[in-house]
Amino acid sequence: MEAKENKNTKKVQGLMYKGKPLTRKGDMLYYGNHDDKYIITMKVQESKVIKNLKVATKVSIELQINNPALRGKEKVVKKAEREGLYRALEIGSIWLEDALSS
Description:
The structure is a single chain. By secondary structure, the chain is an alpha+beta fold. It has one domain (15-101). Helix content is 17%, strand content 48%. It has 1 helix and 8 strands. The strands form 2 sheets. It has a 6-stranded antiparallel beta sheet, with helices on one face. Strand 1 and strand 2 (11-12) form a beta hairpin. It is globular, with a radius of gyration of 15 Å.
């Protein structure tokens, strides 16, 4: 993820979680550096509205090999499903740290 400059010419970074970028495109979330060997993908399967805010209630998580030459299931190393985005991010961050350290 590239940093952008704001009006005060300070570098502005995107959303970070435990020192790694977290990006979103629709119901898909991507966690990790796009240059690393592995990345976490999360898909919001179900959500509900709480006080006018859409909250993820069911999220699928995958640890994937970050290689564009691989397709679909060839990329998937681990997968799981969790209730809530926080729980999904926690397991995803653990998987990613383990994969990158080995």
